[in-house]
Inverse folding.
């Protein structure tokens, strides 16, 4: 299980395609699997790409949207864990 | 009446400069005139044409591409196009209103691996294709792939078919190269014997994969008229508005024969140009039968596109390159 303060970065073998800025498709060139992101998922992905930790992302989401910090953490962790499982992101050991 | 298809080269402009491409297919001289296009739509149906396949150059670069799509679907033709995929993220929304007329998009995929594809087509072009197919999958747009077999990717045919299947493609079509000086310089082509080897592999792939795996016309066959153009089920219209015999004979430049050109649609009606094409085709058929019946066929002439390239004097220049495996086979 990923820790909230660990850095998680998109795998360089992933091609992202945004559709009208509202959703996105991730395609892993190695596994050839597609993965769709909704608007929130895309937002989280962009923040991961900018180097934010899951904790920082959760804080930002609960500040910007009307959800509790616990709920935000849960959502972010659920997505990040799925992304790890699909090899779409790499957990950095820094 | 049979279904008939028009291949229309919308432009000879292109954002890429692929190593294997015929110079005049991407030399950036111009776009198909929209009035000519309108006349094609008005007149082709009475000759049985009901499907249009756009090509180029890069067809999506025609400055009025969106308008052309509307014209085609309003005129009741089914359509598709072949593309390098580069602009797809920009144009796909324009396709959606015409999805009932869109039969599918063909993306050119020249390697299973990023490096192989990009070596031929330029940096980032593989990822652009992957973005394009991602959109197709999400939006339910049917797509297939085209692969030109080269010395670089001939070892990847199995992988290419596997990739196509995994990505959700409705099929994969391999095709042999049409020789160009650059192909010769860069040793991209393979010998007749090696071509036949790749055909055997393709046959095996047909049995291995659940999606259709096919070969474009041009593979070795004893059938004398094996393809849609020779059966008069397909014509080509180049960006200058010329009705021509086949897209494989188009874009070879000025120093080659041009007997495959029937007539220009700014100078004559569609019916007249099409009538001329029928004459060209009949003469071609007669000549090919005669040569064959006299026993004057070389083994390489059973590669039908190679036969056409010779017949229409598109490859005479190749005899200046004796080290090339096709050079001694030029007529
Ligand atoms: C000329 S392109 C035009 C459409 C678009 N620009 C593309 O690349 O898909 C059409 C197809 O012809 C193929 N092609 C280009 N040069 C070729 C050659 N010398 N021999 C065989 N096929 C070739 C391309 O790989 C592509 O699949
Ligand atoms: S093959 Fe297609 S993409 Fe490549 S240069 Fe030719 S026209 Fe352009
Ligand atoms: S070049 Fe000749 S054989 Fe090849 S597809 Fe065209 S018409 Fe058919």
């Amino acid at each position: 299980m990923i820790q909230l303060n660990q850095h998680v970065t998109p795998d360089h073998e992933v091609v992202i395609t945004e559709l009208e800025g509202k959703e996105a498709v991730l395609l892993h060139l190695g596994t050839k699997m597609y993965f769709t992101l909704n608007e929130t998922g895309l937002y989280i992905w962009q923040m991961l790409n900018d180097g934010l930790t899951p904790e920082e992302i959760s804080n930002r989401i609960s500040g910007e949207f009307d959800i509790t910090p616990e709920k935000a953490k849960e959502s972010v962790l659920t997505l990040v864990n799925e992304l790890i499982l699909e090899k779409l992101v790499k957990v950095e050991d820094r | 009446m049979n279904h008939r298809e028009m291949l229309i080269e919308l432009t000879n402009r292109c954002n890429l400069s692929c190593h294997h491409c015929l110079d005049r297919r991407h030399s950036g001289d111009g776009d198909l005139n929209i009035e000519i296009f309108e006349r094609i739509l008005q007149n082709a149906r009475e000759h049985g044409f009901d499907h249009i396949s756009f090509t180029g150059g890069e067809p999506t670069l025609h400055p009025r591409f969106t308008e052309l799509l509307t014209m085609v679907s309003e005129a009741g033709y089914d359509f598709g196009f072949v593309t390098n995929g580069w602009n797809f993220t920009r144009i796909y929304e324009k396709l959606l209103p015409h999805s009932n007329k869109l039969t599918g998009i063909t993306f050119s995929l020249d390697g299973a691996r990023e490096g192989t594809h990009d070596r031929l087509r330029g940096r980032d072009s593989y990822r652009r294709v992957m973005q394009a197919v991602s959109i197709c999958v999400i939006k339910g747009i049917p797509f297939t792939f085209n692969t030109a077999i080269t010395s670089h990717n001939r070892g990847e045919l199995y992988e290419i078919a596997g990739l196509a299947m995994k990505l959700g493609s409705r099929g994969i079509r391999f095709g042999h190269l049409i020789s160009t000086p650059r192909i010769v310089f860069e040793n991209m082509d393979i010998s007749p014997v090696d071509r036949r080897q790749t055909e055997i592999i393709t046959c095996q792939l047909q049995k291995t994969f659940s999606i259709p795996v096919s070969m474009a016309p041009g593979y070795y066959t004893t059938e004398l008229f094996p393809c849609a153009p020779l059966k008069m089920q397909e014509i080509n219209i180049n960006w200058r508005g010329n009705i021509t015999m086949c897209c494989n004979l188009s874009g070879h430049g000025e120093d080659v024969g041009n007997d495959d050109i029937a007539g220009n649609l700014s100078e004559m009606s569609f019916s007249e140009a099409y009538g001329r094409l029928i004459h060209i085709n009949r003469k071609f058929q007669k000549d090919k039968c005669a040569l064959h019946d006299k026993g004057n066929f070389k083994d390489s002439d059973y590669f039908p596109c190679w036969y056409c390239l010779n017949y229409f004097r598109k490859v005479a220049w190749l005899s200046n390159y004796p080290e090339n495996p096709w050079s001694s086979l030029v007529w």
